[in-house]
Design a protein that fits this description.
TIM Barrel, two-stranded antiparallel sheet, 11 helices
Length: 289
């Protein structure tokens, strides 16, 4: 069985800080990250989706964590075709527009290229420290299974090389009927890791909990089963606390997936209060049995 690393999709969420999970003396960003990294071997940085990281920040992450710790970094929204706040763009690359949010096509080609370059180069300190695991490319609900979108996946792989992008879909078309085999075969052929998800079903953005390894790295993200998945309130959307029974059911499935990959990353993304941290701790204990 390949190595399984379990972590959470945040360590700085305000509701987590208010939950009491951190001890009173973990009262600075440095102490909180250090405390987190003593308990988990992996974390996913989601803040980079909303605003691209600074190289100095990545250097501090590397310096504040022990050897062997792994950061997965979520791709900046513009790079996955999501609407992106103009104010989140690098100041010198902001287009002259009255729009609050823009898409890739709203930027001059050279500016778009520069966003890619700066985003990736800011992660150099993590790369140099051997602590960058993967780049999470979570595509929007309108990113359907089309030839152009498949070509964009290959473009992402080319732009990121030698870094490792992992692919998460949010549209059911990728797994409707025979498309499931087509999707997984395409990813395997191009050695693109598939992000398996556990999430609410019955929505246009729903993807079934398919567990598949399409490369030497497998990734599973647990989004929970909130009854308010369509809420704009992120804590209502992800505010789900997995039961011990649910996690017990998942443990053998994760072991089986790990048999098909060299490394498996498991991220709890039910980031409300300390739900993700408690659930991740329970899952680690179950996997160790």
């Amino acid at each position: 069985m390949g190595e399984i690393k379990v972590g959470t999709a945040s360590w700085t969420d305000r509701t987590l800080l208010d939950s009491g999970w951190y001890p009173p003396d973990a009262d600075t960003p440095q102490r909180r990250l250090s405390y987190y990294a003593r308990r988990f071997p992996l974390v996913e940085v989601d803040a980079t989706y909303y605003s691209p990281p600074a190289e100095r920040t990545a250097r501090l992450w590397a310096e504040r964590t022990p050897a062997g710790f792994t950061f997965n970094v979520k791709a900046f929204s513009l790079l996955t075709g999501h609407p992106t706040r103009v104010s989140a763009l690098y100041k010198d690359l902001r287009p002259d527009t009255d729009k609050r949010s823009v898409y890739p096509g709203d930027l001059p080609a050279q500016a778009y290229e520069e966003v890619w370059t700066r985003f990736l180069s800011a992660l150099d300190p993590l790369v140099d420290a051997g602590k960058l695991g993967a780049l999470l490319f979570q595509f929007p609900p309108w990113f359907t299974i089309t030839r152009d979108n498949k070509q964009y996946l290959l473009e992402v792989a080319r732009r990121c090389a030698p870094l490792r992008p992992v692919i998460e879909f949010r549209h059911a078309s990728w797994f409707a009927g025979d498309n499931a085999d087509e999707t997984l075969d395409f990813l395997r052929r191009h050695e693109l890791p598939f992000v398996c998800v556990d999430m609410p079903q019955g929505h246009p953005s729903s993807v079934p909990p398919v567990l598949a390894a399409t490369a030497d790295l497998a990734v599973v993200r647990f989004h929970g089963h909130s009854g308010k998945w369509t809420s704009r309130d992120i804590h209502e959307k992800f505010g789900y606390d997995y039961s011990d029974r649910e996690l017990r059911d998942w443990a053998p499935k994760l072991r089986e997936l790990a048999d098909r990959a060299e490394q498996t990353h498991v991220l709890m993304n039910n980031c409300y209060r300390d739900h993700a941290q408690r659930n991740a701790t329970t899952l680690i204990e179950l996997l160790a049995r």
